[in-house]
Amino acid sequence: MDSIDDFSNKQLLTNELPDFEAVELQVLHPDYLKVMLIYAAIATFIPAAAFVAAIFLVEDAPLLLPIGLPILLIYMLFVFAGVIIGFKRRGYAIREHDIVYRSGFLSIKTTIIPFNRVQHIALHEALFPRMFKLAGIQLYTAGDESNDLSIDGLPKDIALRIKDLLASKIQGQ
Where would you find the membrane-spanning parts of this chain (predicted)? Predict the structure, then answer.
């Protein structure tokens, strides 16, 4: 911009903005649902074990079983339903200038990270995903960590290709 005459700041009408929801998202690998169910089983095992222990340890608790068991079952149902429904809503897309990721169960969150905001990319292989040959990529952005993006449940070869692509895009800026 050489002079003030070159400056432009025209209004953009909302009906003319690009629709990110029109992007066709790639689904995560189906085996990632198994990984998420393993994590859910671990998360529900702890309260279930505590409930069973309480039944045997508390001698006079007449309401423990009729009230505690339905609460535990509702909790377990909510956790597993959340995992299954949340998995079906996850997806990602790589576009020319950014990456889009959608996730959520009760509320759906869509994150769009422009490549020029990415400072670092990491590949993660946790224990259970690694058993299914899955990995995740983590995009670290300029700013605070609430702007970072993690996409798990990718086949390892695709995660590596995405990491290499994004690394070349941010180095070419």
Answer: 36-57, 63-87
Count of CB atoms situated within 10 Å of the CB of 118 = 22
The helix (H) or strand (E) run that includes residue 137 is: strand 134-141
pTM of the model: 0.85
Residues 156 and 113: their CA atoms lie apart, in Å, by 21
DSSP state of 1: -
- Work out the pLDDT band at 139, boundaries 50, 70, 90: very high
Q: Which helix (H) or strand (E) segment is 82 a member of?
A: helix 69-88
Number of domains composing the chain: 2
- Of the three residues 42, 57, 86, the one that is the final residue of a domain is 86
- Domain span at residue 109 reads 92-171
* d(C-alpha 166, C-alpha 118), whole Å: 9
CATH value at residue 99: 2.30.29
Instruction: Give CA separation, 13 vs 5, 10, 16, 18, 123, in Å.
Output: 23, 10, 5, 11, 39
Among 43-52, 55-64, 68-77, 81-90, the minimum mean pLDDT is found in 55-64
Round the average pLDDT of the chain to a whole number and report it. Answer: 91
Token pair recorded at residue 44 = 């529900």
